Amino acid sequence: LLALSRARGLALTSKPLLRRHLSTTTSPRFSSLLRISPEVADAIATNKPVVALESTIYTHGALGSDLQLESIVRAHGAVPAVCGILAGVPTVGLTPPEVDRMVRDGASKASRRDLAVLAAGGLLATEGGAAARHGGTTISGTMVLARLAGIRVFGTGGLGGVHRGGEVSMDVSADLTELGRTRVAVVSSGCKGFLDIARTLEYLETQGALVATFADGVPEGSPMDFPAFWARESGVRSPATVRDEREAAAMILAQERLGVESGLLFANPIPEEHAIPRVEMENAIETAVREAAEKGFTGNANTPYILKRIRELTNERSVAANKALVQTNVARAAKIAVELAKMLE
Ligand code: PSU
Ligand code: MN
User: Fold this and answer.
1) Is any ligand 1 atom within 6 A of the Cβ of residue 139?
2) Residue with the nearest Cα to atom 21 of ligand 1?
3) Which domain of life, per UniProt (predicted)?
4) Rounded to the nearest 10 degrees, what angle do helices 2-24 and 115-126 cross at?
5) pLDDT-derived band at 127, boundaries 50, 70, 90
6) ipTM of this model?
7) What is the pLDDT of residues 89-100, one digit of tens each?
């Protein structure tokens, strides 16, 4: 009961903040259901750099919750905004205890299609119904919440994609269609090596998503692979490259000024020292993908199962790499947000 009334109280007190933010941003959409933490609402209203973070990474990512992502964002001069659904309340700016609570109680994995299902539970709970469920938002779910709040930059680990055999199963992550329709810049290490990367890029092109890979230290104009998460190479060329955070910020601004509503994907290859060569991952990937098919882990249960199995099959080696890459992506996202805030001054 206490938790419920607290959720309700917060939903009510956030309204004036939302109104203030609405008048100072260009966000075309707005949801009275959204709870934005006071710190994040203030940062948005005053044009401070803000970085959205997802909650699926905590609830379904097989990485543990001690990723230090918020402190990394802060260390680079930006405000972190963890997005997710807490007891039926879509929230931007979850606190660490709130995320812990979601992990402890258990949360469902929430992509775009799941948001209203969970939020309806929240609406009914405020009228005295049963306690509503939590939702760890995926990249697509997080992009929707970030866009509603007026946040432009989002740092995370790996994008969902077209699954192997996706041309038959039609298992194509909602992250890809989200990038087609929601103008948020996502910084990731490309997508997992267990996905079909060539088809993922085809699909992103069809969706009109901007895809650019960071080319640090690579001579101007040289081609870059779109990275494959644990590996820097995928054998598939990235459609565009980006030199530094300032250029990424310029792309975000250009997209906005052109009025193109689709999203942007900045691929940030895993640092050399943490990378695991593709051949070394291949066995673990093959086994995990085969087992998922045999055991019937399809739909949104597929990615979490494969992540967990790869973690076991590589004796946790994949986890250290995964943590390192998420942290570098989030740092990069913060630097992009800082550059963008300067351009918008
Ligand atoms: N990649 C990771 N860790 C993750 C995910 C992807 O390294 O936790 C999550 C992200 O939230 C991503 C989602 O949006 O999986 C994609 O799931 P699906 O393949 O079911 O669309
Ligand atoms: Mn899927």
Assistant:
1) yes
2) 173
3) Eukaryota
4) 120
5) confident
6) 0.97
7) 999 999 999 999
